[in-house]
Amino acid sequence: MKLIRSARQVAKMRSADFQSAVSQIYNLPRVTMPRSRNDNAPAECNSAIRQITNLRYSSSRHEAFTLIETLVYMSLLFVVLGLGYTAMYRSMDASAGLRRNASDITHALDAGERWREDVRTATQPLRIERIGDEETLLHIPQAHAEVTYRFTSNSILRQVGSAESSLALEHVNTSTFISDSRQKVTAWKWELELQPYRKSLTRLHPLFTFLAVPTNTPAQ
Length: 220
Fold this sequence. Notes:
The protein is an alpha+beta fold. It has 2 domains: about 1-30 and about 45-55, no CATH class; about 95-210, no CATH class. It is built from 2 helices and 8 strands, in the order H-H-E-E-E-E-E-E-E-E. Strand 1 (about 125-130) and strand 2 form a beta hairpin. The radius of gyration is 47 Å and the shape is rod-shaped.
C-alpha cells in the first residue's frame, strides 16, 4: 500500500511540473490537474500542447522547403556553368581555327611568290607531268638545276635538282597548273585551294591564283 501511495504522489508531482512548465511558456494560469484518469485535460493545457506541436511541424516544413530551394539553386548553377564552358570551348576552338587559317594563308602567299620567282627565271619551256589522278608535277628548267613542284597527299613539295624534296605548302585541297599561251609570251597560272580548319565554321574556302610569265623562254 505504501508503494502505491508513493507512485501516486510521484505521478501528481510530474503532472504538476508539466503544467507549471507550460504555464511559464505561454503565460497560462495554473490549472489543477484532475485526479481521475478518465477526466479530460483542461482546455488551456490542450491548446498549449497543440501550439507546441504546430510549432514543431511548421519548423520541419520550413527546413524541407529550404533544402528544395538549395537543390534548385545548385541545378541552376550547374546549368549556367555548363553553358559557360560550352561557349568558352567553342570560342577557343574558333580562335584556334582562325590562327591556323591565317598561318596557312601566309604560307600559301610565300609559296606563291617563290613559285612566281622560279617561273620568271626559267630558261626552257615549262613541262607538266601527271602521275595517276592524284599526283601532278611541274618541271621548271633553271640555269643551274631543274625545279620541280609536286602536288601529292594534300601537300606541295619543291625539289631542286637531285636534292631531297622540301615541304612548300600543306593543307592543300586542290592544286592546278595551267599554261596560258598568248600572242608573244606564255603565261602560267597556279590555282590553289586550301583546306578549311572546320567546314561548319568556314563558309568561304581560301582560293588563290598566282600568275607568272617566263622572261627567258619563247612563246609556245
